[in-house]
Amino acid sequence: QKSLKVSAWSEEQKAAHWKRIDTERQTWAGLAQKKVAPLYEAEAKAVVTAVGAGGKPDKAIQSLKKKWTDSLEQLTYNIVEHFGKAPTKDFNPGTGWIRAWIVEHAAESVTSILATNLDDVNAIILAGTTDNLTVSQIAKSLRQFYDDQSPFKAMRVARTEVAQAAGFAQHESAKEAGWTKHSWLSSRDERVRDSHQEIDGEEQPIGEPYSNGLLFPGDPSGDPAESIMCRCVEIFH
Question: What distance, in Å, lies between the first and last C-alpha atoms of the chain?
C-alpha cells in the first residue's frame, strides 16, 4: 500500500518517520566511527614516523589507501543492504548497478578523505618550517594534531558515509518497489540547514533531483555543502 503525499501527513507523522530513520542512522554511524577511527590512528603513526625520519607524508598516507578502501566498501555495502530493505525486502546490494555504485562511491570517498588529510598534514609541516621548528618538533605537532582532530574527523566521515549510503539505498529500493514520487522531509530539529528547511515537502518524480540539486538527502554527486552530514530523509509515494 502506497503512502499518502507528504502534504497529507501530520507533523507528528513526519517527525516520527524522520526520527525512526535518523535513529537507525545514528546507530550505524556509531558502528562506522569505530571502523574509521583505527584508520586515522594507523595514518597518524605512519605519518609521524615518516616525517620524523625526514620523509614526506604523501607516501605514508597513500600506503593506507587499500585499508581505507576495503573498510569503506564493506561498510557501505552493509549500510546499503540494511537501509535498502525498508522500501522492498527483495532489494539486493550485490547486483549490477547497486554493487557498482558501492565500489565507485567507496573509491571516491577514500580519494577525497586522503586528499583532505594530506592537505592538513602539509599545512602543519609548512607552519612548522616557517616557525623554524626541528623535524622532531614538527613530528610532535603532527601527533598532537591527529590526537586532537581524529575523533571529529572519524565522526564526520562516519555520519556522512551513513547518510549517503542510506539515502542511496532507500531511493533505489523505492524505485525497484514501484514508487513514482519522492518528497523531501527535512530534519525535524533546529540543526537543519536553512536550504533544506526551504525544500521541506518538495515533491519530484522519483529519479529526478530536488531543486537543491540532490537526488536524495546526502547525495554525494551533489554540492558537498548540501550533502555532507545531511540528516534529512525522503517519503515515497
Answer: 9
